[in-house]
Every structure is written in C-alpha cells, then in structure tokens.
C-alpha cells in the first residue's frame, strides 16, 4: 500500500496523471450583465482605376452585455451596448479623431460554442467595406469556437459552418480548427485558453438593390473574398464566462459598388480590391 501511494504521488509530481476533461462553453442566464473593454485596429489598402488609397482605423469603446433570454440549447439573445467611442482614422494621408458618438446597441444571438448566429443588420450593413472585410464591421463579440464535448489541454476539434449576412444576401462559409492550449491564471481565475484558426469564403451583398427605373443599378455593395483569423479566448470553466479574447485577421477581396453606395466613397468606381489586416481585443472590465 505504501508503495502504491508513493507511485501515485510520484505520478502527480511528474504530471503523469492526465488533466480532468471539462466542458468549455458559454453559459448565460437571463438578466445577467457583463462589462468589457473593446479595442480594434484595421489597416486596409483600397485600389481601383490605377488609384491606391491606404485606410487605417483605430477604435476603442466600452461594452456592456445584457442577457435578454437563453433557450434550451444555451443560445443566448444578447443586447450589446457600446459607448465612450474613440475612433482615429487615417485615409489618404488625412487623419481624423472622432469622439462623442452616441451609444449604440446591437442585438446579437450567440451559441454556447461562441459562434455569432445573428446580428442587428442596420449597423452591419452601414459599416465601411474594409471593416466588413476585416471582421470588425460590427464584430464586437469575439470568441474562439468552443468544443461540443468535454476536452483536456491538448485536445483539438474542427467545425465548418455558414454565417448569414444580416444586412443583405449571401453568406460567409467558415472552416475552423481549434485547440485547448492550456490553463492560465487571469483575473484570479484558472482559465482555459482556446485558440481557433479559421478561413472564411465570402460572397454577399450589403444593402437592398434599387427598384423601378434604377433597378439596373444596384444600390448596395457586393463583396467577394476571403477572411482568415486567429482567435485566442480565455474562458472561466466554472462560470462559463468569457474573460478575454485576442484576435488577428487578414482579408483579401473585391468590392463592387452600386450607385448609392459609390456616393459614399467619392472618386471610387467599378470593382475595388481591398486587402488588409486587423486586430481586436475584448477584455472583461
């Protein structure tokens, strides 16, 4: 018996005993409220008709997440309110800093595995095209794709799914690979760290087409291209709360503009190629 005890103790000391499998999912309750800080950067290059324009945006905001309801599958209907905006933009050598933007509330539906299933279409559809490409056009809720069953550090899983376009037609088809990297202490919690790398193929139209005599000139934007992302999320496995997320994105695609859309970007006409990268951080406040 003494020898058995010594063997067990030695195994623990050497890390030979595998970590206990645990469920990593988001768990919400109606009425819950969480606060985060959100920061993002995007650097894009727009090119058309022999003209190339760099466009960079830095944004920070406070974020309040209120749980409106949760269904039996764990899918949560969230009201995400962003405030205290600070936006710095640099386009074609002209720099602007914008503050005092009114608070904005988005209605977002999030699955227990962290995927955004639907989002209020108005803000998404009115976002700048390069923000849509970089994943920052309304993407204020960012999470790794979490597993469907209990996992241990080192375990991997994959998921393929379509993200609908709430502001028009078409989808983004996503293929993701995820890994439970490790446990790490953050904000006094022994958090599970999950990383997801994804490739998305985008083919969609933003905004409604024109009707009547102008029907031959669509009023929206059509976008085709690819988006890749690397998202790392820290999850509290006890409360199933998202503590922190860091993501990087790259994009490459083509934008075709309708008559009403082109008026918002003077000097641009015809197909516009857009290539760039971005980062976003969501941190529990």
What would you note in describing this structure?
- The chain is mainly beta and 285 residues long.
- The protein has a single domain, classed as Lipovitellin-phosvitin complex, beta-sheet shell regions.
- Helix content is 9%, strand content 56%.
- Strands 1, 2, 3, 4, 5, 6, 7, 8, 9, 10, 11 and 12 form a twelve-stranded antiparallel beta sheet that branches.
How do the helices and strands line up, and which of them pair or pack?
Blueprint: H1 2-13, E1 33-48, E2 51-70, E3 76-91, E4 94-99, E5 104-110, E6 116-119, H2 121-125, H3 129-134, E7 156-164, E8 168-186, E9 189-206, E10 221-236, E11 241-257, H4 259-262, E12 272-284
In short:
It contains four helices and twelve strands. The protein is mainly β. It is globular and about 60 Å long.
Q: What is the count of structural domains?
A: 1
Beta-strand percent range: over 45%
Structural class: mainly beta
Mean pLDDT: 81
Q: Helical residue percent? A: under 10%
CATH-defined topology: Lipovitellin-phosvitin complex, beta-sheet shell regions
What gross morphology would you assign?
globular
Q: List unreliable stretches of 5+ residues.
A: 4-17, 121-130, 134-138, 209-218
- CATH architect. name: Roll
Report how far the terminal alpha carbons are from each other.
50 Å
CATH class: Mainly Beta
Largest sheet: 12 strands, antiparallel
The H/E string reads: HEEEEEEHHEEEEEHE
What's the Cα radius of gyration? 22 Å
Number of strands: 12
Number of helices: 4
